[in-house]
Amino acid sequence: LILYVTKKEVTEAAAMEKKNGSKMNIAIIHPDLGIVELASHGHNVHIFTSHHDKNRCFEETLAGSFAVTVYGSFLPRHIFYRFHAVCAYIRCIFVALCVLFKWPSFDVVLADQVSVVIPILKLKKSSKVVFYCHFPDLLLAKHTTLARKIYRAPINYLEQLTTGMADLILVNSKFTASTFAATFKRLDSRGIKPAVLYPAVNVDQFTQPNGYKLNFLSINRFEKKKNIDLAISAFAMLGSPERLRENVDYLEQLKVLAEIKGVSKQVKFITSCPTAERNALLSECLCVIYTPKDEHFGIVPLEAMAAHKPVIACNSGGPVESVKDGETGFLCDPSPQSFSLAMAKFLNDPSLAEKMGSKARAHVATSFSTKTFGNKLNEYIMDVVEPHKRSKSD
């Protein structure tokens, strides 16, 4: 969604291996992270997944620096467009069983999203299991009808039970950590506290911007929870003249809203945006508008700041931890008035966007780069294998 306003790794790996004293064999189940950085630390990394589309996957998985093995690609992702959660569980369980019976023990097994695989992976006593909980799945699922509640009840129970079996639990933000404690109360009462490992962005893919056009850019899926109508309503206040049916309907509602607000000629909706086009749009815009409220983290603000662009985001959830208010962007109340005032600051002084953008790039490069992520993840993994070395600060 674009709002137009008219007017050397090998050396590092060897050094890291020498520092740690040894390298480990690490299995990764269903990757959805920048975990490929582990390979640069000298570890033997092997990824296991039920689906690996070479046309739509992490580019690093095609480089050949680690193995990728697919099990269960024949298993369905849904049954007549229903039972997505059950099918996801079945696929992940199948992958975990294949790893259990077909491969020797790994020092560490890193899993994410689906916790039901944890007890299977722990059957090999010599392996430590690290689970990355992006966000409690039971909070993302719908419980709107009695049938859905009955369907989700055993899944929700299993999620809490199996999550607690991991040797180490990681979450993507302090906000998610607090949500984890409030959601999995039995785990919290047992003293099971997740550690925070912020997601990362490859800063090297973003070069110096091509300028700062008077455009506002919003990058999101067209889902209601992304609150994109906030961006349109805020923009209108400045004074400027099928994959999922629900998403398609929301897109149509957004187009109608732009018509009602009188800004339809200045709002462009892009439904399929390749990486190269996204980076080009980031390079040219004035700033990025990030509208989701209570987002558990949000990778878009990181991508924006890595591209030298400030961010206007809701003052809640993950952006509170990633965006420095008044330095790398503005954190606002989720209202058109608040967002509009922040947008006006950049319109009145475009040089402010450049100044904040420079600070934003430095901030992301220091705190949220894939290298930073890899270093921190490596620390956690080394600590879980040798717990007596865990720093008290963690």
TrEMBL record:
The keyword Transferase applies. It is a single-pass membrane protein. CDD domains: GT4_ALG2-like. GO terms for cellular component: endoplasmic reticulum membrane. GO terms for molecular function: GDP-Man:Man(1)GlcNAc(2)-PP-Dol alpha-1,3-mannosyltransferase activity; GDP-Man:Man(2)GlcNAc(2)-PP-Dol alpha-1,6-mannosyltransferase activity. Its EC number is 2.4.1.132, 2.4.1.257. Pathway: Protein modification; protein glycosylation. Residues 37-204 form the Glycosyltransferase subfamily 4-like N-terminal domain. It is found in: Endoplasmic reticulum membrane. Pfam families: Glyco_transf_4, Glycos_transf_1. Keywords: Endoplasmic reticulum, Glycosyltransferase, Membrane, Transferase, Transmembrane, Transmembrane helix. It catalyses: a beta-D-Man-(1->4)-beta-D-GlcNAc-(1->4)-alpha-D-GlcNAc-diphospho-di-trans,poly-cis-dolichol + GDP-alpha-D-mannose = an alpha-D-Man-(1->3)-beta-D-Man-(1->4)-beta-D-GlcNAc-(1->4)-alpha-D-GlcNAc-diphospho-di-trans,poly-cis-dolichol + GDP + H(+); an alpha-D-Man-(1->3)-beta-D-Man-(1->4)-beta-D-GlcNAc-(1->4)-alpha-D-GlcNAc-diphospho-di-trans,poly-cis-dolichol + GDP-alpha-D-mannose = an alpha-D-Man-(1->3)-[alpha-D-Man-(1->6)]-beta-D-Man-(1->4)-beta-D-GlcNAc-(1->4)-alpha-D-GlcNAc-diphospho-di-trans,poly-cis-dolichol + GDP + H(+). Residues 213-362 form the Glycosyl transferase family domain. InterPro entries: ALG2, Glyco_trans_1, Glyco_trans_4-like_N. Mannosylates Man(2)GlcNAc(2)-dolichol diphosphate and Man(1)GlcNAc(2)-dolichol diphosphate to form Man(3)GlcNAc(2)-dolichol diphosphate. Belongs to the glycosyltransferase group 1 family. This is Alpha-1,3/1,6-mannosyltransferase ALG2.
